[in-house]
Amino acid sequence: MTKAEKALEACEKVLDGIEENSITTSSALLQCLKISRLLNDYDAIIWLQYEYGGYPRTDDGKHIQSDAWNIAYKNGRGYIDDGNKVIFTEIASELEEKIVAQHKAVNNFSTQGTAISGDYALGAVNNLTSSVTRSTNNIVSNIALNEKRLSILKSRYYDYALKKQIEVSFGNVAAGIFSEYREKVENHFSDLSKDTILKLQAIEDKINSGNPELYSQALATCRRLFENTAKELFDKYFPSYEDKMYKTKSGKDIDVSGDHYKNKLSAVIEKMEDKSTSKSLVGSNIIYLLDWMDNLSNLQCKGVHSDVSRQDAMRCIIQTYICLGDILNLQNEKFIYGNNLATENQ
After folding, report:
1. What's the whole-model pTM score?
2. What is the 8-class DSSP label of residue 77?
3. How far, in Å, CA of 23 to CA of 10, rounded?
4. CA-based Rg of the chain, rounded to a whole angstrom?
5. Residues 122 and 213 in one domain
6. Does residue 312 share a domain with residue 232?
7. What are phi and psi of 65, to 5 degrees?
8. What is the pLDDT of residues 208-222, one digit of tens each?
């Protein structure tokens, strides 16, 4: 069983247990902590560890540490008291024990069996009754407050488990779809030149390096992949095209000479989509990706941020894979239906 599958199993235990009232809140908390560990959800791990072991205090023991206080307030423990932001600090197991003890205590408060005689008997009975009533009311009030706080924590744990269940389930669907897509297109990558395929391998080495400088290089390599692909496909589908400008279906003239690889790709994809049995948005998706990569590179050059993050690099690589796959799918589709654009002249 994979970590994701174990996490889903733990999510189900929390959700079913809370819905069916068959699990304690403290047990639900432990399952949530397990979920966060299995999914490497580091922020949740910190929060849930505080929920389980208590929120850390300052050295003098009088206050909750600032960062921990903010986490507590953000996760449902905060409320307003006399205009001030405060938090309650009891953990789930403490609240559960308090509620049980308070229920027992309220049942023990009674005037039944009490016998008082003498001149002040009536006053003494009234005082005793009033005292029992006040104590009972105080305990009932505390029970209500503690149950409310426990419900808040229970709701937070339920929400976390539900959120992670949806994320993992969707991720599994997305992974399955991507796997199917990968099987469909990866055989077509042999249509690319050896130089282009080597660039694909170079990207994998860079993203797995753990070196932020190489993430920027991965971004640049993705862009060069499209430059190579644009040149290869334009030469293939427009072998005798000597004009500098190309008129698109919308009537716009674009420069397809020299290094204008975006325009070359646009011209090729427009041709392929025009001959395709199913219209697509491949061209617009690719141009969006290329513009995004250029914008990221420009920001980097201007010093807006010095390094491309691994998340940026991964997004770029995934989108590059999909876009290249879409191009190759279009190309393959045309050959299947006997529309070899390489034989056509503009």
Report:
1. 0.59
2. I
3. 12
4. 33
5. no
6. yes
7. -55, 145
8. 666 667 777 777 778
